[in-house]
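Lab meeting notes turned into a lecture example. A postdoc, R.K., suggested we walk through two folding results consecutively so the class can see how the record format repeats. The first protein's sequence and structure tokens come next.
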Amino acid sequence: MVKLLLADDDARLSDLIKEYFVGEGYEVAHAWNGREALALIAVDMPDIIILDVMMPELDGFETLKQIRSKSAVPVIMLTAKGDDIDRILGLEMGADDYLSKPFNPRELLARIKAILRRATQDRDDDPMADIDLVGVLLRRKDRTVYLNGDLVELTTSEYTLLECMLMAPGQVLTKQELSERALGRKLTMYDRSLDMHISNLRKKIGNVDNGDPRIKTVRGVGYIFVSPEKGS
């Protein structure tokens, strides 16, 4: 059973989400604020966390910051409708996705399923080789990434995006392709989540020896991971 932690001080919305997800077979824990959420996480790490941005005592951003200092557990942020700053900040801080209030629980369920499908993808039946390109080593068996031998902490979305690009070095991947393959949904107008994940990924894996970024932007099209021939 998937363990879901919901941190939100809206009693009506929390009851609705709990009832819906329990009906879908999830085990749901609830926290009224960030401090309660962190206390629950310390006792039993959930499979996925839903964090409201605006909470008393400890808001969603500070809670996310503390979670990311210790874990790459998938996190979805709940933001106010039309609040682009909150969405961008949440993604910059390492959230895997966001959803604006009000929303249909079915949409939240779809987002959760997409993230968990990527996070828990079983590779045991068809083990795949590691990918090692221009100083970046991606180990599929345990879903870890190393940069010049040092472990790099990535979120589920960042890992999946990197994997998609490493499988096609030197090849331009459109934003639509990356959104569908890595985030599990079609890219919509004004959706900046893909760009923010790429921005975070760039900061973590840096440049190649000649100073060029490992991930380059192809304006108006998408992104490209530098090919080994051009990475020296």
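The second example is placed directly after the first for contrast:
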Amino acid sequence: MNGIHDMGGLHGFGTVKVDPNEPVFVTRWGSRVFCMTQVIDRLGVWNLDEHRHEIELMRPQDYLEWGYYGRWMFAMERILDRRNILTTAEINRRVDELSAGLKHLTPPANPDRNWPLQEEDKVRWGAWRKEVQVTPQFSVGQRVRVRNIHPPGHTRVTSYTRGKVGVIHRVDAQAWVFPDTRAHYRGENLQPVYNVQFSAQTLWGEEQAEANLFIYIDLSENHLEAVGEHQHES
């Protein structure tokens, strides 16, 4: 889907400032969100692409204001509520109790809670399947075009590469999960992933980008199409 999360090439955000002394976690609560997310990942509650898409559904203002781990927390709470593992009402009640300084907190009470998960309800987290073989459609050095797609759901194709022509730099011929379908539980659609080289001027234009500058982006096979020898670049 097109949204504020796809910020590559947008104007008005200024330069990226890098603090060489920045701590791993700026806030203590951020470290806790990280740890909770890692645990939930391994318990089979969600898959990576579902989690990413949930973040994409944030309001643009919230996405910009909540910060990196605030977005993780948003996705965590919504998926846990949807799975009936920990409801939004329970979370809000506990926040209100803690904010009021109550010493005796109300125990969570949800007789229909979907926990612990049954084995058949658990989700596989990994991004590739080593036990499956796939045959790449493209090869190193081949010219390809990124499909110009605008799905309403999740996609890993950045907006600034859509319709652009690049060259296959590396082939990862493992059986990678296709994020666009797995995010919505429409199958894993296992396929190779390609590292594609783009000229910066192809992506941004001759006036905005330096000559002889290249960008390398990983793309799934379903995101690419072959380019004939006589076809022009976008």
